[in-house]
């Protein structure tokens, strides 16, 4: 479709962030309307918000991404919010697939353009490897990437933020351009198409017609919402509502994921939320679930425990496994303890590998806390943490060292992934299939800097950590900080010896001191 102004005019104030020198030169693009969207008449009806308060929701993990079908090769991918809407494009990243096979896209084969860049956007990140992208909050925010060569793909997977601020993407549109030119809208997450699909799904599940007339007034929407939730909760107690991932995603649209401070979820909303999280675990047993997406309604330990009850009640009804609540989501109870022999073996393999690379790997954080306090992995922990020292004083100095280290580890046959825009990264042992969360320790004289509370980088005394000391753990001799108890007191405070599963929770809880 041809817009009212040229692409040059549209991009006049745009940040242009080219990739490395091997990236393609910027080529002229035919005039386009940057903000074409699917029809959204139904979302404007007064009862829509009452019935579908989280319309447009999608998650940021393997169990809950947005799957967008593609037809033919793509050269440009563009995402945007409505032209007159003040918002942000804020995503974890993308994947392209053909016939169910992931298509890698190198950073050198991309040129990124965006309406603006938020200060927190990672630099030089590859969005096709969960590199994250984030514009500032502004009217008509948009982001696009042009590929060096057209990619033959039949599916685009879009990954949202994994926390409550994923709601920023609920008015997102995804558009692509093929090698012959001409943008076309692929998917608007809040479109009439999505609403009618959701109503059709509800009609099928409930065995009665749920038509668009329920959106015609706020009262009709509220009445329909209460009735539909009650029926779905009743059905969910008898078994799985739907095994289809996309249908489960649409059902999340019925559950508020943001509420005023004085309000909470209704019993039926709690039940449906628990059911859908348990259904994620049934499809992806190793996933931590999309629990953090409810951050803005899970404001206390009481509410977190309520959700834990609902998830386990639902798991029993649908044939799933009981789960424990962790800061990342829901996991099998004592997941590390159940596979402790495998995880200890993985730690030994990682220690050997990293020692060969001149990096003594030390137990740290929750792993060290469990080893010192309980002689075991923490029951509520779900990953293994280790520290490696780097001769770098700042993050800027550390990044190229880490890039080289990650490449070297990958060359040794280990899978390497970077789960966020922090300095830590995951390494997966090819012999056990288990992974370690590896954190760098930036060494600069009498101070070392590392991720501490809520992943913030801050300095501590070098003597607490270096030189590394041996520590016996579950029959193995591994490395730990020089002063394990001192390190734990620095990280978790003077009460570190007292178990507290909600310590340093990713968001503020109203009934905790932290």
Note the main attributes of this structure:
seven-stranded mixed sheet, 12 helices
Report on this structure.
This protein is α+β, with helices and mostly antiparallel strands. It has helices at 7-10, 48-51, 192-206, 218-236, 245-252, 267-283, 301-318, 335-338, 340-356, 365-373, 395-411, 484-492, and strands spanning 15-18, 66-69, 73-80, 86-87, 90-98, 101-103, 110-114, 133-134, 138-139, 142-152, 155-160, 173-177, 183-188, 323-326, 329-332, 362-363, 385-390, 415-417, 425-428, 435-444, 447-451, 457-461, 469-473, 476-480. A hairpin with a 6-residue loop joins β19 and β20. It is globular.
* Sheet with most strands: 7 strands, mixed
Overall 3D form:
globular
Radius of gyration: 24 Å
Q: Report mean pLDDT, rounded to a whole number.
A: 90
Approximately how much helix is present in the residues? Answer: 25-40%
Q: Quick one: how many beta strands?
A: 24
Count of alpha/pi helices: 12
Helices and strands: which structural class? alpha+beta
The oligomeric state of the chains shown is single chain
Beta-strand residue fraction = 15-25%
Task: Give start-end ranges of low-pLDDT stretches.
Answer: 1-32
Distance between the termini: 53 Å
